[in-house]
Amino acid sequence: MQFDKTIDDQYGIIYGKKELVYIKTGRGGSIYGEDNKYLRIAQIINSRAECAVVVSANKPDMQYNLQEEISYVISEIGEISEIIYIGISNGASIGAIQGWQTKEIKNMMLINGPLTINWPKIKSGVQNFNGDNIHFAYGRFDPSYKYFGLLEIINSEKYTKQILNGVDHNFKGKVDSFIAF
């Protein structure tokens, strides 16, 4: 198993058609993830939808500008029609806060993002999102699950939410469920 291309251990790329699925890992996450889970997810998405998939690492000592990252990735893979953004943990927070600034992002799936860190920016980012949909998913055993109700005060009809039973923050023992999700 491998990516079609890797760039400085920051990006893992699988080439496909004009739609791009962009996966931002959690803080400290590599492009591979534990037991190659991000590579496996990327390969499954690519085989099912024939779209390009990029996994972006989330190094703990860096600040990320999502718009700059996506512009760089597009320069590497070529023209795209739209982006589906998947963010896990801190990657979900990055998407919620900054996703609205990238017009190519049409849909976002934000998984187990910390809700109490930068809550005002998360709320504002979701309310300013001009794409089609943001889907929030939280494991019942994730630390942010107890703050799940905060999502109710976001003034936007563009988001949906889901609780994942039996799942913790890292999908411990549930990686195959994560991949199927």
Task: Characterise the protein shown here.
The protein is of the alpha/beta class and 181 residues long. The protein is 28% helix and 30% strand. The chain contains 5 helices and 8 strands. The protein has an 8-stranded mixed β-sheet with strand order 1-2-4-3-5-6-7-8, with helices on both faces. Strand 6 (105-111), helix 4 and strand 7 (133-141) form a beta-alpha-beta unit. Helix 3 (90-98) crosses helix 4 (119-128). It is globular. The two termini are 20 Å apart.
Order of helices and strands: EEEHEHEHEHEEH
Regions with little confidence, pLDDT below 50 for 5+ residues: none
Structural class designation: alpha/beta
Radius of gyration: 15 Å
Q: Compute the separation of the termini in Å.
A: 20 Å
Number of helices: 5
Helix content: 25-40%
Overall, the morphology is: globular
What's the count of strands?
8
Major sheet summary line: 8 strands, mixed
Query: What percent strand?
Result: 25-35%
Mean pLDDT: 90
State the strand order across the main sheet.
1-2-4-3-5-6-7-8
Topology record:
Blueprint: E1 5-7, E2 11-14, E3 17-24, H1 37-49, E4 51-56, H2 66-77, E5 82-88, H3 90-98, E6 105-111, H4 119-128, E7 133-141, E8 159-168, H5 175-180
Parallel strand pairs: 3-4, 3-5, 5-6, 6-7, 7-8
Antiparallel strand pairs: 1-2, 2-4
Helix pairs in contact: 3-4
Write a brief structural summary.
This protein has helices at residues 37-49, 66-77, 90-98, 119-128, 175-180; strands at residues 5-7, 11-14, 17-24, 51-56, 82-88, 105-111, 133-141, 159-168. The chain is built from five helices and eight strands, in the order βββαβαβαβαββα.
